[in-house]
Amino acid sequence: MLYSTTKSNLTGLWKRRTKKLEKQSVIGFPVTAEPFEAQINTMLGWAHQRLSKVVCVANVHMLVEAKYNEGFAWVLHRADMLTPDGMPLVWLTSRLRKRKQDRVAGMDIFLSLCEKASKENISIFFLGSTPDVLWSMEQRLKREYPNLKIAGMVSPPFRPLTRDEDAALVKEINDSGAGLVLISLGCPKQEWWMHHHKGRIQSVMVGIGGVFPIFAGEKKWAPVWVQKNGLEWLYRLVQEPGRLWKRYAKTIPLFLLLAFKQLVKVKLGLEPRFGCPQVNVAFGMHGRR
After folding, report:
1. Average pLDDT value over all residues in the chain
2. Contact 257, 63 (CB under 8 A)
């Protein structure tokens, strides 16, 4: 009887945590418009139930890439949660909803989930990056979160997995008992991977981009004032100009244009202020993968 009551109480807690999420259309994509803690608690609630869920951590680059690629747009629309990582998404969501929207960024998600999972007996599987980065991460995790259950750490090869390799990885993750799988494969690779493994991986999959090398100490995390002022793109550009300047030249102007058009349409009553958009790709559709 004691077991039955405890289980019932936990079920009630999970249901309260996993209430229907409010979403806001941001240039045509359903960004989750909830406070930071509500989004984290929803992930934890799903993890307790070992639900197969997809969480995409969205920034300007991700949304604009999806505007060019119909298949990738479909992936984002099918995600269970699309958190507002980039400050431009936060500002636009706040403006549209006329209330402050928290930023729900990859590193903050990583740190919060590690802290709370260690207290709630949820194990985490780490997928991505290099063996050296994972080793450094493991040492830091053991120091800072000694009670955290690390279900496993895998650095996949920089090539598509064979069918047998993929099946073995799925089995390893599921057999580990992980409630959360934190994935650092880069955009859009990690989003496609989560999309194709939904229903196969019995865990909450969270794509957190380049967080692993930063946590491991191999790359620098932008100062807080840079993050709050939406200048992380400039911080990264200074660090990696050769790799990033073309990306930013392609994505930032288009996002500003689309955001401006959305605000004008809302102001003129041509588009609802709130709501969850349908798949609608306006630029250069390349089809689904």
Report:
1. 87
2. no
